[in-house]
Amino acid sequence: MKSRSDKLKRLVTVQRHLEQMAEIDLAVTTQQRQEVAETMDAVAGAISSLNPVHRNFSGIYAAQIGKLRHKDTMLAGVQQMHEMRIVRERAKGDRLEERMQEARLLEEREAEDNAIHDLIDQHVARRDAGDL
């Protein structure tokens, strides 16, 4: 049978994995926001371009900028959600790790107490055997 600290250690490992997954999700969202920002810069450059080809498509570019701003706003919300999730998962992991360490200390104390009780029992048993 596994001890409480071993079970908690496994939970800590799972929780740290969840934390890493949240960090990966945040990285993906940050990368997507970066790509949207680069696209917005390119479209803004095309709008302000003196090239006659771009002038004909300025209405399309303006609509695209609006869509990109909306997408960036949406991704900013998602990014904030992932940041909060990372904090929450990290806090859970830290609490589980503290509980694991406390459980390990209690198990070590119990083992030490049992060892002392065994020594006392052995000493009493020898003394009683010597009296007979």
Automatic annotation (TrEMBL):
It comes from the Bacteria. This is Flagellar FliJ protein.
